[in-house]
Amino acid sequence: xxxxxxxxxxxxxxxxxxxxxxxxxxxxxxxxxxxxxxxxxxxxxxxxxxxxxxxxxxxxxxxxxxxxxxxxxxxxxxxxxxxxxxxxxxxxxxxxxxxxxxxxxxxxxxxxxxxxxxxxxxxxxxxxxxxxxxxxxxxxxxxxxxxxxxxxxxxxxxxxxxxxxxxxxxxxxxxxxxxxxxxxxxxxxxxxxxxxxxxxxxxxxxxxxxxxxxxxxxxxxxxxxxxxxxxxxxxxxxxxxxxxxxxxxxxxxxxxxxxxxxxxxxxxxxxxxxxxxxxxxxxxxxxxxxxxxxxxxxxxxxxxxxxxxxxxxxxxxxxxxxxxxxx
Length: 327
Fold this sequence. Notes:
The protein is α+β, with helices and mostly antiparallel strands. It is built from 12 helices and 12 strands. It is elongated, with a radius of gyration of 29 Å.
């Protein structure tokens, strides 16, 4: 009884057409012998696929003829299909991007062999765009400080370590800047923590406006921030820090009826070819920051070895904890 129902005219086709996945059936040679409605609709909506991916076309050739950014993934998928057809793999699955001019899209391609006298395989392509976008968003959130919207400590350390490696390999210039909001406890005590949060957001907003796209500003502590300046030597970094300092000082924090000015202290250190990681340069920038604080705050200080004695132990201990927490 079951066999007669499945062999009834149009019944199997109706089942395939009811599925949202894009499905095609290929014979043992890779020629497309059947497609469902979702496959037809997709190819019609995405020329020039429609001109070469219908019944009678050679599926492997369709993959091999792909061009542009999708060509490498298409070639890999063709190898997977061929492996299933030749009996070298029980099945094959692969996730890949397939972007259109108006939308970023991702699909999961699955290849399952047909176990009958004709052989061949069933190929389905299912959209996974929503899941991929959610994954990307979760990655972004994991690397972002929720209060200020800038990268967090972990992301900064990863980016800074990559830049240190570039300096070591190619001898390029790069610098790090530590920023600490002055008298932040007094801000919280006077205006309350919500206004203190607004002060932190104000500082990051001002700095982001003046920094380049390749620069990275991150929140690495309560009121502490760090800036990575690729391609910038110590002199250039000091100039950048001075611009940031003036902008922070001249931009009032506004929160409801409250409006007041804040200041910040800056410590600058250039990445050295001998640095083995970002923590070494961060320690020097933090030492310079301590020097700026001791000199009266609201100023920029660059790392000077002679000025390092008073703050070295506290700075290194704090940086060690920072680096450990970011791993």
